[in-house]
Design brief:
52% of the residues lie in helices and 15% in strands. With 331 residues, it is of the alpha+beta class. It folds into 2 domains: 108 residues, Phosphorylase Kinase, domain 1, CATH 3.30.200; 212 residues, Aminoglycoside 3'-phosphotransferase, Chain: A, domain 2, CATH 3.90.1200. Strand 4 and strand 5 form a beta hairpin. It starts with 8 loop residues before the first helix and ends with a helix.
């Protein structure tokens, strides 16, 4: 019998590639491979470790796969099905269908139609009011049923300050003047609007959210679904629901559909009876834009960054947005 420890990553990928037929597809991301096979999708994590993300061991990949299914079933129960063990059989073959020793874990999902995601529908001008209203129904039910994640306002303020400083440490090496001005404005907001942020905590607005609410993650189906939540770090999922909605608005704006993003933000807040002040929304939008600027700056510096100039340009664009919204937050 083949020693499971000797099974290489190339052998695992080779087996999964062998399952692909005509019309199927294998997609590599920064942290995983996704195999679109027939009516399902199989996701295999890369054995990597970076910051708070650790997939370096079999046990870690298993745990995170289980968490991905659990967390994503909150907003996409019909998409996320289960975890599947990848095994080496007694004959030494890597397989899904036989008894054997587990060598890795997969997340099994229903294959979704990319053309039905919100970003694609917006680009075609086919995001109907009815479809968007159903997304609002899904989001507001999720937010209304979520338990508060933080009860201590001081710790929430420290979180925001530390996140703003972390963004500055990365952006300052590329855009020193703009990054310094952004941090100054964001600190001024946090210092001057402490009662607003304390109120968000006391009202239970800070929850364990989706964490990555972008148009490309929203499926306009019957029923709608929101996929690809940020499962690997609880701290990054703890957000004011208004901040998460501001992120969605920001990303719709980036695609050239600011009005749709604004409508989704306002409709959700209205349904939640949430009267978040306009300046607070600008701060949250600034905070999310700065975080995106940092992520693109990181991506430009990665060995497999692809086209660093493109990522640096995008980082700069997000930074400009962050600066303007930080200015508006202080009006």
């Amino acid at each position: 019998m083949t020693d499971a420890a000797s099974i290489t990553l190339e052998e695992k990928l080779g087996y999964l590639h062998s399952l692909c037929g005509s019309g199927d597809e294998a997609i590599e991301t920064h942290f995983a491979w996704v195999f679109l096979i027939g009516e399902r999708a199989l996701k295999l994590r890369k054995p990597v470790r970076r910051d708070t993300m650790d997939y370096s061991t079999l046990a870690a990949r298993h745990l995170d796969s289980e968490e991905e299914v659990r967390l994503n079933r909150r907003l996409a129960p019909d998409v996320y099905l289960r975890t599947l063990p990848l095994v080496v059989s007694r004959s030494g073959r890597v397989t899904l269908d036989e008894a054997g020793e587990i060598v890795d874990w997969l997340v099994e999902m229903r294959r979704v139609d990319r053309d039905r995601m919100l970003d694609a529908a917006l680009q075609r001008g086919e995001a109907t009011k009815r479809a968007l209203q159903r997304v609002v129904d899904l989001l507001t039910a999720f937010y209304a049923s979520s338990e508060p994640a933080i009860s201590d306002a001081a710790s929430y303020l420290r979180r925001l300050e530390h996140q703003a400083e972390a963004n500055h440490r990365v952006l300052g090496s590329l855009h020193a003047g703009h990054a310094a001005l952004l941090l100054e404005r964001q600190r001024a907001f946090l210092a001057g609007r402490r009662p607003w942020l304390e109120s968000r905590i006391s009202r239970g607005c800070v929850i364990e959210a989706h964490g990555d609410l972008r148009p490309e993650h929203i499926l306009l189906a019957e029923p709608p679904a929101i996929i690809d939540c940020l499962e690997f770090d609880l701290h990054l999922r703890i957000l004011d629901r208004a901040e998460e909605l501001c992120f969605l608005e920001l990303e719709c704006d980036r695609l050239g559909h600011a009005a749709t993003g604004q409508w989704l933000l306002r409709e959700c807040l209205a349904r939640l009876c949430d009267d978040a002040p306009e300046q607070l929304l600008h701060f949250y939008r600034s905070h999310r834009a700065a975080t995106r600027a940092k992520l693109y700056a990181w991506r430009a510096g990665e060995p497999d960054g692809g086209t660093p100039a493109e990522w640096l340009e995008r980082s700069g664009q997000y930074l400009e947005t962050a600066l303007e919204d930080a200015r508006l937050s202080l009006r």
